[in-house]
Fold:
Amino acid sequence: FIFKFKNKCELKRKPGSVAVVTGGARGLGASIVEKLLKCDFHVIIGCRNTSSGAALVRKLRTEKGVTSGSTTILQLDMESNESIYSFSKLVLQTRPKINVLINNAGIMDVPYRETKEGFESQWAINYLGHFLLTHLLLKCMHECGELSRIINVSSCAHMCSKQIDFTDVNMMYDYVPKAAYAQSKLAQILFSKYLNQLLQGINSKVQSFAVHPGVVNTDIFDKTVIRKFLNWIAVLCFRTPEEGARSILYATLSEDLNNKGGAYISDCCIVNSKACTYDKKLQKELFQHSMDSLNIKSFGSIL
Structure:
């Protein structure tokens, strides 16, 4: 799952479809945006710096010759609940429907730091912020009545996670950056599976998936030992952002996945995730803990 693998994903035109991509201005997110534009999506790019989003679109239009699709660029800081609320409000004002939500933004292996709301930064950015964003956009996705998908970009690193301690999800008393990252990725998969089960219960046309894109050579590694001392490993062995985007696009576009929501995708295939991710009690406990953390009473106002 580390070395480059030549998986393939058929790109299909989807004129009139709308996708929201977090962390869409750089790295893996930028490759996702490029491919969605080639499929004629309208792509709403959520990024911390809107000038970076604008620069990406200019590059795609002028240097890469991407003429199809359209974009809206909005400021989004996934570690700020205030920013997430503002972003979702603008998205809903901009578009009456959303077909795809790709929860892609993330950080990895960073020193302990808490957000303004008091959450450990990897837990907040990788998982809890996307939980909140999904809550805010879900009603729109459900009520449009079209087949829609929520894609949580997870990682094989979830396999290294220990059992979540709900009394200390911040890992404040025993913080290990890699362990906190793995925990956040485990949470994404648990959330994807439980959310899909809830959506099935109301006969929604929205499906939820978690995806491991492979180990991708992006700036997420910039502060790690690999980048500092072993960059040649990343260059030779890791996937390019374009290669990493393929499984995400497969989860987004493939008709083979209709009615297979809740699946964990890697190399454009459904694969098994860690055994504990199938534990319905754990799924429910995480979901309720997240609801309580964010003071949400009804998820998406539909569940």
Remarks:
- Residues 177-201 form the longest helix (25 residues).
- Strands lie at 18-22, 42-47, 70-75, 100-103, 148-153, 206-212, 264-266, 269-271.
- The two ends are 35 Å apart (CA to CA).
- The chain has one domain: 18-215+241-294.
